[in-house]
Design goal:
The structure holds two protein chains of two kinds. By secondary structure, chain A is an all-alpha fold. Chain A is built from ten helices and no strands. The chains are: A mainly alpha, B alpha+beta.
């Protein structure tokens, strides 16, 4: 097509002025991003599908009040994250790792991701993501998976940028530990100054979950700073 | 010991300025804990960066688009009868959409008896006011629709349903002149159905193979009603790509009560 693609905000205006196809164009443009954000947040296709529909229906219902103060994508991300929160709350899936709960036993296994396409989605990573507290998970997915800047993430989740920085760092550590990476690094720790988030300081390293440790250790070794 | 927690994410991302980075480097020399955390954060960041987006499964956004169509019809200012029927026909004519509402109807019905049986499930369709027999896949591959054309298809179907309500004795298939094979019809039907938007009382009344703004497409036209023998009250049109059945466009049209 020779014409440049219309901006999101222009599509919103076109829809509001009577062009029904403009909304379909917005959905088509953003459905992949919205669905994948929801999939990472919830870990299940069924939930991602519901959250995606909830998000777009919310947007549809509020398009007429969209004034363009924030970018459309910022707004759409915010609505999607909130739809995921609502859905997770409804499903009563409490996160297993909370900051400071160092020796929290496994209350119940997190729901296994049901995605069949193992080639495009690391099951281990997704499983570990589900163990990271939601607020941290959202920041981490937006920043590290969707490549949004810290400022954009702050606008989406509605917190100061300092909070984004903190959640991003804490979330990454929680993810690494959920993947068993802390076991390998423990020998380096100062016992008088234990880590803050997750982990099981002072305890003999428990048996790592099968299949996770080796991969995680490999990843760690491959990315150690000089 | 205080730890530069606010800087560690940026340190891992490589977005700190020189002064900040030097401060973190100096801290790391004497803080094993932060060193461990940085390595863990780097490992986590690396695995997250490798996650790839997965395709959206079929049917996820279909209901959203259908709802958008319904809401659009309810918008103030969208008034049936004032212009849409005429505009729909005009647009259809402009697109050289040859529609045989009556001409060739008998042939069409004969050619698609199995589909008709399915469309009017249980054989009760004949008794439902406004029922339109399904007449198989129409070949219009030389017709390039745009959104106005799709809306015209919806309007036209709504008009046909209304006409069928008025003249219940003559239920006429909404079909163009050229019919495709049953195999192609089944394929098209399956493709449109995969949009996942059909309700229990949706009945396929028309299926067209054409193009939408250049993209080869199947156009499925459904009548949608409250069930229980009631006349349909909506027409919903779904346009899907022939290659992967993704939804390209949608339209809905309220059928005015006769």
């Amino acid at each position: 097509m020779p014409d440049p693609p219309a901006r999101d905000e222009d599509l919103v205006r076109r829809y509001l002025s009577g062009d029904r196809a403009a909304f379909a164009a917005l959905v088509e443009r953003h459905e992949r991003r919205v669905y994948n954000l929801a999939l990472r947040m919830t870990g299940r296709e069924e939930d991602a599908r519901d959250a995606t529909q909830d998000a777009f229906l919310t947007v549809l219902g509020k398009l007429s009040s969209f004034r363009g103060e924030a970018a459309f994508t910022t707004w759409l991300h915010r609505v999607t994250v909130n739809a995921c929160y609502d859905l997770l709350r409804k499903r009563q899936r409490a996160p297993l790792l909370e900051r400071g709960d160092d020796d929290l036993p496994a209350l119940e296994p997190p729901p296994a991701p049901d995605h069949a396409d193992a080639s495009s989605l690391s099951m281990d990573v997704q499983r570990a993501l589900l163990q990271v507290p939601e607020d941290f998970r959202a920041v981490m997915i937006l920043h590290d998976v969707h490549d949004l800047r810290q400022e954009e993430v702050a606008a989406i989740v509605g917190v100061p940028i300092g909070t984004v920085k903190s959640r991003l760092h804490r979330g990454r550590i929680a993810l690494a530990r959920a993947m068993g990476i802390e076991q390998q690094e423990r020998v380096l720790e100062d016992p008088k100054d234990p880590p803050v988030a997750g982990g099981s300081p002072g305890a003999a390293p428990g048996a790592p979950r099968s299949g996770e440790r080796a991969d995680a250790a490999g990843s760690s070794e491959g990315t150690v700073s000089p | 010991m205080s730890h530069p927690e606010d800087l560690l994410a940026g340190y891992v991302d490589g977005t700190l300025d020189e002064r900040e980075r030097a401060a973190v480097d100096a801290h790391l020399l004497g803080c094993a804990r932060c060193g461990v955390e940085v390595r863990q954060a780097e490992a986590a960041r690396a695995v997250l960066a490798e996650l790839e987006n997965v395709p959206v499964p079929f049917g996820v956004t279909g209901p959203v688009l259908a709802e958008a169509g319904r809401r659009f019809e309810r918008r103030p200012g969208v008034v049936w009868g004032r212009f849409q029927w005429a505009a729909g026909l005009a647009a259809a004519a402009a697109l050289v959409v040859v529609v045989a509402l009556n001409v060739g109807g008998e042939d069409a019905r004969d050619a698609a008896a199995p589909e008709r049986t399915t469309a009017v499930a249980g054989g009760t369709g004949a008794a439902i006011p406004g029922a339109i027999p399904f007449a198989g896949l129409e070949r219009q591959t030389d017709v390039n629709y745009d959104d106005a054309g799709i809306r015209a298809v919806a309007s036209e179907a709504a008009g046909a349903v209304l006409a069928a309500e008025d003249a219940r004795a003559t239920q006429t298939a909404l079909a163009g002149a050229v019919q495709e094979s049953k195999e192609r019809t089944d394929l098209a039907r399956d493709c449109v159905d995969r949009s996942g938007v059909r309700g229990p009382n949706d009945v396929l009344i028309r299926l067209i193979e054409a193009r939408l703004e250049g993209t080869p497409a199947f156009i499925g036209v459904y009548s949608e009603g409250p069930g229980a023998g009631q006349a349909p009250d909506h027409i919903v049109v779904f346009v899907v790509a022939t290659d992967d059945c993704r939804i390209l466009s949608t339209a809905s049209q309220r059928i005015p009560s006769g």
